[in-house]
């Protein structure tokens, strides 16, 4: 479980490099995005942890329940708790979208270099590598464990 958390926490860093190939001005945008990672970690990880621990003792935080949802349930505000669940599901879909983007671009790059099947190097009229997206989706569907 801990390795999954660690991998998730650092999983976005490689997207900066992968996105650099498609950036209009990578010399300016990539250093800016890289420098913003520190601020995002401070706000989203450290900040949310500080708020959480100021409202609930750390001994009550478990892996099977969202502590933020639990706080709102205890305050009697089920609307906000349900809205927070929707936010969490939206965030999970966003992570999946980033993973599909990352996977498709890596497969596309490998195919362009001749290290993957040529069919993965094709793009549609908008420049989208549809075949690599389909392969990523297929692997995701087959990899499901539950």
From TrEMBL:
Topology with respect to the bilayer: Multi-pass membrane protein
Subcellular location: Cell membrane
Main location: membrane
Alphabetic keyword roster: Amino-acid transport, Cell membrane, Membrane, Transmembrane, Transmembrane helix, Transport
Signal peptide: none
GO cellular component, one term: plasma membrane
TM segment ranges: 37-58, 79-96
InterPro entries: AA-permease/SLC12A_dom (IPR004841)
Assigned protein family: Belongs to the amino acid-polyamine-organocation (APC) superfamily. Amino acid transporter (AAT) (TC 2.A.3.1) family.
Xref: PANTHER family: AROMATIC AMINO ACID TRANSPORT PROTEIN AROP, GABA PERMEASE
Protein name: Aromatic amino acid transport protein
């Amino acid at each position: 479980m801990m390795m999954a958390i660690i991998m998730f926490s650092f999983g976005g860093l490689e997207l900066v490099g992968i996105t650099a190939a498609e950036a209009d001005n990578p010399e300016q945008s990539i250093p800016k995005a890289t420098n913003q990672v520190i601020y995002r970690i401070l706000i989203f990880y450290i900040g949310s942890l500080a708020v959480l621990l100021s409202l609930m003792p750390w001994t009550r935080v478990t892996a099977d329940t969202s502590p933020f949802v639990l706080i709102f349930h205890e305050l009697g505000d089920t609307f906000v708790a349900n809205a927070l669940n929707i936010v969490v599901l939206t965030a999970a879909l966003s992570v999946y979208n980033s993973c599909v983007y990352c996977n498709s671009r890596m497969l596309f790059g490998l195919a362009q270099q001749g290290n993957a099947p040529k069919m993965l190097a094709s793009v549609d009229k908008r420049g989208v590598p549809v075949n690599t997206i389909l392969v990523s989706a297929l692997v995701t569907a087959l990899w499901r464990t539950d």
